[in-house]
């Protein structure tokens, strides 16, 4: 648990995609610990996680089961979250799928599926919260991307294409809705060792090679990302927008 407190997040209406597992679950827990009112979506049933959060923290999130590639269902879930908790003033687009694939075997259906999860849903989630944020006098959107496109990582080109697109989307929305006091930033984690990563790809040789690339010689855990997302949705970052914030232990450098 990160012991940083952002007092203005208390009672804030927060919506998180993919908030029941991996980094998303850490985000949900972290915002609940700040006293925020959290609604989240995920494809798998997260009822046990909801009960766990209520028991541990005493702050129960609203879970809405939803496939984010079903845009109408996603819009309905966002509306349900706003009805329950008030206008959403912090949106965290976290859900993604980095399934590995080979360029020469990708077909049109796979490409469309990857973009639907990793980029299209982000756009329509942002679109769905804008009017509520305007009415509330402002808000903050955090679009999760990845460092993978920054250093030309291989093995998932449809995913890295979407990651790069998220940054373009973030900058355009920041410019368009800045006059409404709506801030839009991207957050790019490095290799965060979620259970999925540990189960599928984090073999000893790969872990050692990646750690060698980092300036800081500790592997990233989901909790390492939470405080940065909280910072980007709090008043502590009130004059930051259109930026891509990297949390990767020092693999890539920006500026």
From TrEMBL:
Location of the Ketoreductase domain: 12-204
Similarity annotation: Belongs to the short-chain dehydrogenases/reductases (SDR) family.
Gene3D superfamilies (UniProt xref): NAD(P)-binding Rossmann-like Domain
Keyword terms: NAD, Oxidoreductase
One Pfam family, short name: adh_short_C2
A single GO molecular function term of this UniProt record: oxidoreductase activity
Protein name stated in the entry: NAD(P)-dependent dehydrogenase (Short-subunit alcohol dehydrogenase family)
Coiled-coil spans in chain: none
